[in-house]
């Protein structure tokens, strides 16, 4: 891990300028593309371009990239916890959402198909697809292949956020406020996708367009606390990258469970970026954060 003393104000300023300003270009275009129905272009710009810019910012700012923790020196339990933990908490949140919004639960392909460009939907023969089988397959994949396949894209962000931004902010503000501000900034990094493209929060959700940008900061504050604690315990950048990937993967099965006519409830859930979907993560993160802070005091 990079020592806090090695992250000077100047280097941190350069890092933040590159990580945000350079990323906002592809993120803005991605948001516009998503709103226009071009999901594939959006995912390319977001998941293959913008997501690696925080990592590039570490290199450009002259910070000790080699000290991020590349050698896996951790106990097996951290690997399992990183893979399963975020998804378990997210699914509990989804259960709370559907319990309180029972008419939103529907096993179908409708909500998923609505996300695809019209040209892509026309190529898919839905009569041959069983939505129950899709949910089963996606659940298995979200616990195995998907998080592992997304470690490298997640590393693009984690090298910057947990590797540089969180250590600097914790050094300046302490572990509690440093992590909270770090999570808020992590959320703000995603704002072009939400403001320009309704990414994460579909339809005419309550409080649009103001509540979505706030909610993503709340959700990522909570996840950021857990991911950063895991990084502190292991000193290995691959662990937060796996947790990040697991967080994203948890939303995949839920795409086949939401009634397509209820997308205006996306600010609440069912995925882990909505208020109810994220509630278990928020509670668990708060307990971990203040328990750890009290222990250190």
Please give a structural write-up:
This protein has one domain (4-296). It contains 14 helices and no strands. It has helices at 9-35, 39-49, 53-60, 76-100, 110-114, 118-123, 131-143, 145-149, 151-173, 175-189, 191-197, 211-234, 238-249, 275-296. The longest helix is centred in the first third of the chain and has 27 residues, at 9-35. The protein is globular and about 60 Å long. The mean pLDDT is 91.
Q: Short summary of the structure?
A:
With 297 residues, the chain is mostly helical.
Architecture blueprint of SSEs:
Elements: H1 9-35, H2 39-49, H3 53-60, H4 76-100, H5 110-114, H6 118-123, H7 131-143, H8 145-149, H9 151-173, H10 175-189, H11 191-197, H12 211-234, H13 238-249, H14 275-296
Helix pairs in contact: 1-2, 1-3, 1-9, 1-11, 3-9, 4-13, 4-14, 9-10, 9-13, 10-12, 12-13, 12-14
